């Protein structure tokens, strides 16, 4: 019983790690609202293209 307890306890510890939160992106330092929108749209477009390449 001790062996099975240790086995299942080890499996639970190995599998139980939670997902790590995504690191927060640094704030966008734009001089105007239009520039900020351009940067965010560009980053969304670039990140979307990268995801399409992987598949």
TrEMBL record:
The keyword Ribosomal protein is assigned to this record: no
GO CC terms in record: mitochondrial membrane
Subcellular location: Mitochondrion membrane
Gene Ontology BP, a term: proton motive force-driven ATP synthesis
Pfam families referenced in this protein's UniProt entry, alphabetically: ATP19 (PF11022)
Principal location: mitochondrion
Keywords assigned by UniProt, alphabetized: Membrane, Mitochondrion
Region (Disordered), start-end ranges: 15-35
Protein name (record): Uncharacterized protein
């Amino acid at each position: 019983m001790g062996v099975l307890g240790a086995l299942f306890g080890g499996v639970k510890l190995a599998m139980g790690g939670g997902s790590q939160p995504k690191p927060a992106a640094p704030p966008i330092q734009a001089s105007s609202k239009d520039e900020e929108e351009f940067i965010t749209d560009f980053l969304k477009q670039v990140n979307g293209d990268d995801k399409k390449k992987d598949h």
